[in-house]
Amino acid sequence: MTTSRSPRNGLAGHAFALALLLSACSGASSESIGEVDTVFKFIGPDHKIVIDAYDDPKVSGVTCYVSRAKTGGIKGALGLAEDRAEASIACRQTGPISFAGKPLPQQEEMFSERISLVFKKLRVVRLVDSKRNTLVYLTYSDRLIEGSPQNSVTAVPVPAATMIPVK
Fold this sequence. Notes:
By secondary structure, the chain is mostly beta strands. The chain has two helices and eight strands; from the N terminus they run αβββαβββββ. It has one domain (28-157).
């Protein structure tokens, strides 16, 4: 006996599976530091600003703190809301800086995190300023069709005795 499924149910199932896959593969390993409410919502969570810490996976001793808007309400509770593009970043030396002997690319995406159901991501990129022996970190958001020019940048000077190995 065969059963037929309507195309609509099949698409809904595929969309749900895609959403689960994307949330599992966000690639960002963060630690929540805290949050503040910005708008009260009667139904669902409030709109808020969240602060997360990201340890640089290739540079021991550097942690980046990213603050960003998180949409609440019913859509936010269900994971269907698109968060705003604004974000701020501050990276600091939090221990002895080391590179585990591996050279860094001149520019590399360190983290990305989904900020809408499918099409929008918050990204953190590391750039190496070899002349000044400094690591520069940039955060911005992009979308499949159109990104946002809003961004934030920070820099971590590496002690002169430790040269940054670059590919």
